[in-house]
């Protein structure tokens, strides 16, 4: 059974940093792509970043490029999202997801195949 557990969310002032973690179990990192997504109140879910652990390829939405960094620790089956220079518009519930294929486009739209989702973690950035 695939399980994804996010942690690391919280309240931070604008300009601050947070690091989200996604602890995964029930599948092999080599066979899947892992991504971070977010959903703000009243808005559709959007893609933030994704990583192919086996190849090390990463993708980012334009809104977070240069501020967020995705990484994976395959030995710990954990994916991280380091978020720096946070802005109030980054406020959202952040979800970790794993899929046979994930693509995240510059606009934040995304594609996910055979996806599993975590329960989400709240990130609130105050101005």
Short description:
With 127 residues, this protein is mostly beta strands. Helices cover 0% and strands 56% of the residues.
Write the SSE topology.
Blueprint: E1 3-7, E2 10-13, E3 18-25, E4 33-39, E5 46-52, E6 57-60, E7 68-73, E8 78-83, E9 92-99, E10 101-104, E11 110-113, E12 116-117, E13 121-126
Parallel strand pairs: 2-13
Antiparallel strand pairs: 1-3, 3-8, 4-5, 4-9, 5-6, 7-8, 9-12, 9-13, 10-11
Element pattern in H and E: EEEEEEEEEEEEE
Unreliable stretches (pLDDT < 50, length at least 5) are: none
Number of strands: 13
- Structural class by secondary-structure content: mainly beta
3D shape: globular
Oligomer: single chain
Termini Cα gap = 40 Å
Radius of gyration: 13 Å
Mean pLDDT: 94
Which characteristics define this entry?
4-stranded antiparallel β-sheet; about 0% helix; mainly beta; about 55% strand; globular; about 130 residues; 7-stranded mixed β-sheet
Structure overview:
There is one protein chain. This protein has about 130 residues and is mainly beta. About 0% of the residues lie in helices and about 55% in strands. The protein is built from no helices and 13 strands. The protein has strands at about 5, 10-15, 20-25, 35-40, 45-50, 55-60, 70-75, 80-85, 90-100, 100-105, 110-115, 115, 120-125. The strands form three sheets. Strands 2, 4, 5, 6, 9, 12 and 13 form a seven-stranded mixed beta sheet that branches. A four-stranded antiparallel beta sheet has the order 1-3-8-7, with no helix packed on it. It is globular. The model has no long low-confidence stretch (mean pLDDT about 95).
């Amino acid at each position: 059974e695939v399980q994804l557990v996010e942690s690391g969310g919280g309240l931070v002032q604008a300009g601050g940093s947070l690091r989200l973690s996604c602890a995964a179990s029930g599948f092999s990192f080599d066979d899947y792509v892992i991504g971070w997504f977010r959903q703000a109140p009243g808005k559709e879910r959007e893609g933030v970043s994704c990583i192919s652990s086996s190849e090390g390829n990463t993708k980012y939405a334009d809104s977070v490029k240069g501020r967020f960094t995705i990484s994976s620790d395959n030995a710990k089956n954990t994916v991280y999202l380091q978020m720096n220079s946070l802005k109030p518009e980054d406020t959202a519930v952040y979800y970790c997801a794993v899929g046979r294929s994930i693509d995240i486009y510059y606009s934040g739209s995304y594609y996910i195949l055979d996806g599993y989702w975590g329960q989400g973690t709240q990130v609130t950035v105050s101005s």
